[in-house]
Amino acid sequence: MTRPYSPDELLDLAVPYALHALPDAERDIIESELATAPRVVADAFYDEVRAVRETMAVVSAAGAEEPSADLRGRVLSSVAGDNVRTLGSPRRRTAWLSVAAALAVGLSAVGIGLSQRPAAPQPSTAQQVFAASDVHTVSGPIPAGGTATVVFSRDRNAGVLVMNDVPPPSPGTVYQMWLVGEDGATSAGTMNAAAVSPSTTAELINLGDSTKLKFTVEPGSGSTQPTGQVIAELPLI
Amino acid sequence: MSAADLDALLRRVAQRDAEAFAALYDATRSRVYGMVTRVLRDRGYSEETTQDVYLQVWRSAESYDPASGSALAWLLTLAHRRAVDRVRAEQAATQRDSRYGAATLERPADHVSDAVISGEERRRVAACLDGLTDLQRECIELAYYRGMTYVQVSERLSANLATVKSRMRDGLRGLRNCLGVR
Question: Residue A36 belongs to what H/E stretch?
Fold first, then answer.
């Protein structure tokens, strides 16, 4: 089997790679080449990448510029409110069985809590939602494949999301859930490729006055506001 | 703040230490925002992107591995990736309109406190940048600060791909030696 790049050609691309200056397709090919390249070649490549990134980190002193003073408050408060939790489950089930499974996980977690701590445990979000008198279910297809189902209660101000057979997000992106109300969108958590399994569940806390749950594709580990492609929307009414 | 201090702060951020996070923000914000705004050239976009960068730092600090480099390099790499993704998305949306068409780089106002980055350090970096050839500096600026791929750089400069790659590499090596980066 011939390789698309000789070792010298690969090393020539270490600098553009480190500067994020490769076309995405070429970057992907190079990363898979490096995974199987001789150790000495991969080491030399990543050594150069590291040196370039250290150099540009030092260079950043020359262009340093103060952001507005307001940004500090926005950054610190976005982090203070960031209690995103994502739960993964490897089991493949229908949506309703998965919801039942999510409830069972909640129950068994409470059981463990009881045996270890004598203090009265809080019922899980799933338990509270299922016990509510106003429990609602909405479900919809995800165009890329699979379905999303939300079981929620306005009384409990919470819900449980179940995603079945949804393909994982592309490398470098996450799925992000947003509770959308009159005042805009609030992040309700993210799912990376590792978190998305044939059946994925997540808790939605503090539904507030949101009227729908929106799913977008976001870069990195997620965004503060929806910026990416919308893949689905479910009405929470 | 020394590299070791920043590494220690980032490790505390991984433990969800909000005080360490605020200290890390204060020690690095002018570098991160300065780089992001040179790429995005728009105050609103740059502040949004900077905010997203620090949220990503908060969420993914655990993935920082000191063996693979300094905390500052980790942070600026993450920030640069995000800025480049944003500029490419905006360019795709606007078909390279005039917003990103300006050819010259505005020099940022010089109001970063000496306590964060010393004037001596900034002068040393500027001197090393001045030591590059014009073509080396252009290749690095178009790629790093304009978010261009090396293929786009070669088209912009009407230079062949091999030349662009070798000028980038020589330029980075020159900078590295001049700055004494190990």
Answer: helix A24-36
Cα radius of gyration rounded to whole Å, chain B: 17
Which tokens go with B54?
A: 């620090």
**Minimum-distance CB partner of A65 among B26, B30, B55:** B30
Binary contact (A64, B108; C-beta < 8 A):
yes
Nearest to B179 among A55, A67, A79 (CB): A55
CATH of B118-182, one of 3.20.20.140, 1.10.1760.20, 1.10.10.10, 3.30.950.10: 1.10.10.10
Chain B, residues 63-122, CB within 8 A of chain A, namely 68-70, 72-73, 75-78, 80-82, 84-85, 89, 108-109, 111-112, 116-117, 121-122
CB A150 within 8 A of CB A141: no
Question: Which residues on chain A are in Cβ contact (under 8 Å) with B166?
Answer: 12
Rounded to an integer, what distance in angstroms lies between the CA atom of residue A50 and that of residue A47? 5
ipTM over 0.90: yes
Which residues in A lie closer than 8 A to residue B179 (C-beta atoms)?
55, 58-59
pTM exceeding the 0.90 threshold for the entire prediction: no
* Chain-chain contact of A23 with B149 (C-beta, under 8 angstroms): yes
Concatenate the DSSP letters of all residues of A69-103 into one string. Answer: HHHHHHHHHHHHT-----EEE-----HHHHHHHHH
Chain A positions touching B151 (Cβ under 8 A) are 23
pLDDT in tens, chain A (237 residues): 567 889 999 999 999 999 999 998 999 999 999 999 899 999 999 999 999 999 999 999 999 999 999 999 999 998 886 654 322 222 233 344 445 444 444 444 443 333 444 444 566 777 777 777 777 777 777 777 777 878 788 888 888 787 777 888 888 888 888 888 888 888 888 888 777 776 777 778 888 888 888 888 888 888 888 888 888 888 887
All CATH 1.10.10.10 domain ranges of chain B, comma separated, are 118-182
List of domains in chain A: 7-59 (1.10.10.1320), 80-235 (no CATH)
